[in-house]
Amino acid sequence: MTSTPFPVTNQSPPVTKVLVVDDHAAIIEMMTNVIDLLDGFSVVGTALDAESALTICRSQPVDLIVLDLVLPGISGLSLLEQISSFCPKVRVLIFTGNLTTNALRGAVAAGVLGVVEKMAPLAIFRDALRSVALGRTYFGPLAGQLIKDLVVRNPSGAPEREELTKREKTVLSHVARGLSSKEIADKMGLSVHTIMNHRSNLMKKTGLHRVAQLSLYAAQTGLIGETVR
User: Fold this and answer.
1) pLDDT, tens digit (0-9, with 9 covering 90-100), for 185-200
2) SS3 for 74?
3) Single pTM value for the model
4) Dihedral angle sign, alpha carbons of residues 69, 46, 34, 89
């Protein structure tokens, strides 16, 4: 009697659909070429202005947006606020030549996961794409320096908040690096339920609810290095 083998299904890994938004056509072309050469990534749209970006986001699925901070007639963060109203799960990598401390604060507050300056090497841009696609934070060298400057000006970190326990600080350092609750539980030898409770306490004590915000807080308070990756 011959056995019938199980049917083989060739399922391709999921592709991260990317929208590139920048007001310079040459920059868009360069980024598109770089992204399309990466395994698991595909540029599904490009936009030179906010109206075009909104149209694309409304018409097709977008997983990740590469966004400049300065666009014609509007800031990139203002555009992101509009996009987030109907596409709240999209992940964002800021790629800009106009990075300031205030812009970095605004990006983190808006839930941006990655910030890379345009003068950074393309290798850093590629690493940032991969990290953000996985839901992990990534700050380029200049963003890391700005975070370091924030720490110098405010060594105690963010405003006075309830003191974290040693275990909560450990959980925070893992969260800041983009680890999931299960990954943290495995590293610490605890249950996922316990880690979820620690994460809930972290949010209550710090008043922060986004991974990128917690990452910046962890950097400011010295729990991780100045560049979060």
Assistant:
1) 898 988 888 888 888 8
2) strand
3) 0.67
4) positive
